[in-house]
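Narrative summary of target 7.
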Amino acid sequence: MVRLSADRLSSLRVRNVRLFLLGQLVSSIGTWMHQVAEVWLTLQITDSGLAVGLVVAARFLPVLLLGLWGGALADRFDKRSILYVTQSIRGVAALALGIAALADAASAPLIVALALVGGAANAIDNPVRRAFLGELVDDDRLLNAVSLNSTVMATSRVIGPLLAGVLIGFVGVGWCFTLNGASYIGLLVALRSMTVAGRRRAERIDGDDGSVREGLRYAAAHRSIWLPLLMVALVSASAWNWETLLVLHATDTFGGGSTMFTVLFAVLSAGTFVGAMANAGRARVDARTLVLTAGCVGAAMLAMAALPGLAAAVVLLAVAGVGAAMFNTASNALLQRSARGEYHGRVMAVFSATFVGTKGIGGALAGGIGGAFGPRLGIAVGGCGCLGAMAVGWLLGERTDAVVPAVDDVPPPGVGSKEMMA
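Modeled conformation, tokenized:
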């Protein structure tokens, strides 16, 4: 059982972190509600696994194509101002789909088009938001802040899908999108309430022109950056397509409906919550953590693909969720720590393009395989991808030169960087 302690919550001593995480929680619940409803509506309209995969691809591919420029913007301009714009665009796109669905005017092309708009805004928003969190704390609290952010995301993954299931069943799918549009107000208010003096800014150094190319060169030159990125690419493209895989698994394998789909997703999300909280109190993380957790998720997915029965799927989904959260949090923290401040935004942009963008490719792949050959094969492909990432990490070296320090190493109140405590 995960035990809460002051160490596990140390970054919450920073006011700006508290505001950021609260805004994230409200907004992310709406986002997960939207994503679950989006794939369900697409399946209802088209009855096609491939169509579901294409919607997921439209949501994430813009991050792969445009995300690197988001990182360049993050290193050149005020991150909070950028987030005002991107969060507003995503909210408007969600409201537009909600209005269309409530008016019974939603179609597959419209869903794809609005997914592309939201995805394009997310391509800028995602790396900027990740880099912005890194500005709010000193290095000693970095792993804890990233872990608590992952915990917030995991919590929203539990609440959002369950709310989507209730809303779809009682008032209709359109309200999921409408409420998501309204949820973006939460993060906008939190951003507006932050104390500017409590944020760190990186200074530009000689030889860095602020370009995407320079950021890529920097990432390629450091093993502590490119190795985690390579592992993330493998698991994200093959396995991190749960919306597509689970909606097909619930309907095609088990003959269920929206309730079964949202319950399965909530079980997975509960596992990610446990994994994120476990990482919040870990002694340290390095590339060995990525090796072990990728192997855990891969084994769970292969077992889920092979074993019949809903009970086995529920247990294995929870295990996969724990491993996935620990993998995601460790990779994020390693990259946050490895990137020098002046390259921070661009390195996090490469991470976002890798982590989120390749899900677009994987979503189309999972939808096509699941629709044509059954969801079990799609799940098995994801498991193989995770085991491949484990092998890459093992062969290329379990450890890197970046080790994120222990939460226990956090200095007591009053010691360290006082400007962080605004």
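The CA atoms of residues 254 and 309 lie 8 Å apart.
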